[in-house]
Amino acid sequence: MKRLFFTLPLLLFTCCGDADHFSTAEKKRPPKGEYLYRLSNEHTFSLQSPIVQQRRQYPWEDGTIGHLSKITKEHFRCNGSRLNPERTITNDGQTTTLYDCGGSERHSLPMVEDKEHIYPILIDLANYIQQETKKKVVITCGHRCPEHNTYADPSKTNRYSKHMIGAEASFYVQGLESDPHAVVQLIIDYYSKHPDYKYDTAYTNFQRYDKDDTNVTTPPWYNKEIFIKLFKNDEGRDFDNRHPFPYISLQVRYDRETQSRVIYSWDKAHRNITRR
Length: 276
Ligand SMILES: [Zn+2]
Hints:
Order of helices and strands: HHEEEEEEHEHEHHEEEEEEH
Strand content: 15-25%
Structural class: alpha+beta
Helix content: 10-25%
Strand order of the largest sheet: 7-8-12-11-10-9
Bound molecules: zinc ion
Largest sheet: 6 strands, antiparallel
Number of strands: 14
Shape: elongated
């Protein structure tokens, strides 16, 4: 036992004191390396080749295309607001005061089978444009309830607008404001590339509408499903389109799901929204 008492401090002293064995001159001398000699295929551990892993999306990235938010039916909600001032218009000598609706806080989108509904092709095309251009689609007008439809554009030609049944949308593309024809071409391309459409000429062949009963000077384009209007920067200015850019309006003509034409009706516009 006595021997252990002597040996243990001696060992500790020896281990801890090694650094002090070097002279000051030796400590100042730069460390000297020694070459390791081995063959290139000699190794102690074998390393696996790294595999490139796709980064998993964060939960908040699910609804994005690149850096852009995906377009959903939320982007199509009515722009009305009780904060908008009353408007006075004169039609055929009669003066009327218009009030805006309470906006999306006060009423729903059009209801179809108890669910809020926007025709899916409008959402799909908007997302396709974002995906192809990497630029933001700004929907200036999606659904308009009847009150906001009259408030935003009281003209006679707007009385049966498909905005009221969720079958029409106006938009421009940020960064392509001065090139709306490129956006129209993208929409046409969508039909020739998409597997659901590309074998059906009723969708891939676009025609021009050349009657003079529209409110645009550029003849619209149409296929079986949609009707495309291009508003120049001095056309189609209404309360929802007070920006200085040309814009595009898409109207749904045909519902592929129900295989029927999409037509405005008073019932669909007025009775298909729930009010809060
Ligand atoms: Zn509204």
